[in-house]
Design goal:
Low-confidence stretches: none
Oligomer: single chain
Radius of gyration: 14 Å
Strand content: under 5%
Structural class: mainly alpha
Mean pLDDT: 94
Helix content: over 70%
Largest sheet: none
Number of helices: 4
Number of strands: 0
Order of helices and strands: HHHH
Length: about 100
């Protein structure tokens, strides 16, 4: 449940602050740090970094080939905050999925 609340918070932040790359980046990083401080689980940082790398790679390829574009790109044709959103969502997906997998 808390992971879904964190997801909703991240989504609201993205919707409200998407035009301000620096602010949204800082808020998403702070959200992840707060989550880690309060509910850290083994492997979260590896999942987070992997999500950033894989998400960035997919976004770079998609934007480079012209499949999609962003209205406020700042880094490699994507918004600065997007890799951190990918990292956070990667952790959330794993944490929400694990209870179903472990049964």
């Amino acid at each position: 449940m808390r992971e879904l609340v964190i997801f909703v918070i991240a989504l609201i932040l993205a919707v409200v602050f998407w035009e301000n790359n620096i602010l949204l980046t800082a808020l998403l990083v702070l959200l992840y740090v707060a989550r880690q401080y309060r509910w850290s689980a083994k492997g979260d940082n590896i999942i987070y970094i992997s999500g950033i790398i894989l998400g960035c790679t997919a976004e770079f390829i998609g934007t480079h080939l012209g499949v999609w574009t962003y209205s406020a790109p700042l880094f490699l044709n994507i918004p600065l905050w997007l890799p951190f959103a990918w990292g956070l969502v990667s952790v959330i997906i794993i944490r929400v999925s694990l209870p179903f997998i472990e049964q």
